[in-house]
Amino acid sequence: MAQPREDLFLAAAQKERERINTERLALEAGFDVQEAACYKKFFTNSCLKEIQPRRREALALLRQQEVALNDRERKEKAAAQILKTEEKSSPEALQQAAERREQALEEARQRVERSQQKADERLTLKQNEALNAAETAKKAKGSQERAQARVEQRATVADEVKKYNDKQQEVRDRKASREQKQREQTKAPAKPLPTPP
To answer: Fewest C-beta atoms under 10 Å: which of 52, 128, 174, 190?
Structure first.
């Protein structure tokens, strides 16, 4: 309701402003012609002094009309603004504003929920990746530990076999040494006794 009235006033004010500007241009042009005529006269200054008060008076009248128009335009805009404010304050406008706020809050809540859900999904994915990496590292470590244990067990078995073989060799060496000593200590076998006739 306020908009058509404001538009009508603005259109009328624009026409009035154009009329004032047209009239000002016409007066200026007329006074310029009169001043040009004064410059052709012998008493130029006296002629110009007669024109200046009429020019000021005519332009002052147009300026008063322009000020009055600006004042009316300001008042009309203020009234339109008051009307807009009153329309915004109406129960229907307040209800619509409340609905828009409620809808905006709901959309914001949904955006927050979606954002939280995506963040939770990313966190779960990262946790799963970390668990998988830890499980893989654990398996690799277990496999490495088993391989190390096998190597150590083989080394232990090889060491025990070597110790056993060394002991066996030691036993053989002692036995051979003992047999050697016995052979050296034993006398050559005596000759057998003669056989009776």
So the answer is: 190
Collapsed DSSP state (helix, strand, coil) of residue 193: coil
Global pTM? 0.39
Query: What is the number of other CB atoms lying within 10 angstroms of the CB of residue 20?
Result: 16
Query: How would you write the pLDDT of the chain (197 residues) with one tens digit per residue?
Result: 446 666 777 788 888 889 989 999 998 999 889 888 888 887 888 888 888 998 899 889 989 989 998 898 888 888 878 877 777 777 776 777 778 888 888 888 888 888 889 888 888 888 888 888 888 888 888 888 888 888 888 888 888 888 888 899 988 989 888 888 887 777 666 677 788 87
Cα 177 to Cα 184: distance, rounded to the nearest angstrom? 10
Q: Tell which residue, 30, 16, 28, has the closest CA to residue 59.
A: 28
63 half-sphere exposure, CB direction, 13 A CA radius:
6
Contact 14, 73 (CB under 8 A): no
Rounded Cα distance, 163 and 63, in Å = 127
